[in-house]
Design goal:
8 helices, 168 residues, globular, alpha/beta, 12% strand, single chain, four-stranded parallel beta sheet, 4 strands
Amino acid sequence: MRTAILHIGPPKTGSTSIQRFLAGHRAELLKRGFVYPEAPGKRNHVGLAAIGTREDYRGNIMRRAGAAADPTVLRERLARDLAAEMAALPESVHSAIFSSEQLAVRIKDTAGLEQLRTLLSPHFGAFRIIGYLRRQDEAAVSRYSTGLRSGGETSAAIFPAPDDEGGV
């Protein structure tokens, strides 16, 4: 069985650069036995996070995943598309790399993890999780500069407010 490598972020730790690189080098990765699947997203695999996000925490993640508001429809589409993509791979592919910083912030409970496991376990016998961390001051500067560039919020509240469960 193949190995699934999950890069889970969190946000403001260089995830977008990693995702651009992986998406831009799919052919070279394939030659080396790795695949960066397209089923959960062409660049950011936000679809993986969307299927495991609690209903009260979904916000716009379903839209970002290219799905209607019904996570069941998204799960079925992802399962079908991922199965087809994995079946079409040559035997030389030993690992799939998945990347979404939303996996670090949207999946909040074991039910969400179970949704992710249910989707991936038919195709993978092993899982590796990679998470990058960034110093808080550097993350704050990055969040602030992103807000400036995008015309978003640039108040003194640079860090996201914790939710009622102590997470962000």
